[in-house]
Amino acid sequence: MAGRNFGCGSSREHAPISLKAAGVRCVIAKSFARIFFRNAVNIGLPVMECEGAAEAAESGDEVGFDLFSGTITNAKRGERYSAKPLPKSMQEIYSSGGLMNYVKRRLAQRS
């Protein structure tokens, strides 16, 4: 969970790569810096924008997410939130495991 403009100042893909490598499964924030958001999508790190979920969460909460439906659940509080929906093109990148895998798959379909 994060606040507003999460990832501001990180214009390279190393920031989301580091979070993913550290075992972060998803970043839910009130809002994201544009470049961080796109870098996260490109490397396959789930990011969801949902002000309500980010504000309500407290340390120790158990939070689940469904990236494709945009649903976030807080099991400890019994609450459900709706994140901003991702465009279909970004959903396809996530389904592929990141931009590089997406491009490889698309190129293979052309052959």
Under CATH at level 1, the class stands as: Alpha Beta
Q: SS-based structural class? A: alpha+beta
Average pLDDT figure: 95
Task: Provide the succession of SSEs.
Answer: HEHEHEEEHH
**Name given to the CATH architecture:** Alpha-Beta Barrel
Helical content stands at 40-55%
Based on Cα principal axes, name the global outline: globular
Share of residues in strands: 15-25%
How many discrete structural domains?
1
Would you mind describing this structure in some detail?
With 111 residues, this protein is an alpha+beta fold. It has a single domain (14-110), classed as Aconitase, domain 4 (Alpha-Beta Barrel). Helix content is 41%, strand content 16%. It has five helices and five strands, in the order αβαβαβββαα. Helix 4 packs across helix 5. The chain starts with 13 loop residues before the first helix and ends with a helix. The mean pLDDT is 95.
For the structure shown, list the relevant keywords.
111 residues; alpha+beta; Aconitase, domain 4; 3-stranded antiparallel sheet; two-stranded parallel sheet; 5 strands; globular
Structure described in brief:
The chain is an alpha+beta fold and 111 residues long. The chain has helices at residues 14-21, 34-43, 51-56, 88-96, 99-110; strands spanning 27-29, 47-49, 63-66, 71-74, 79-82.
How are the SSEs placed, and which strands pair?
Layout: H1 14-21, E1 27-29, H2 34-43, E2 47-49, H3 51-56, E3 63-66, E4 71-74, E5 79-82, H4 88-96, H5 99-110
Parallel strand pairs: 1-2
Antiparallel strand pairs: 3-4, 4-5
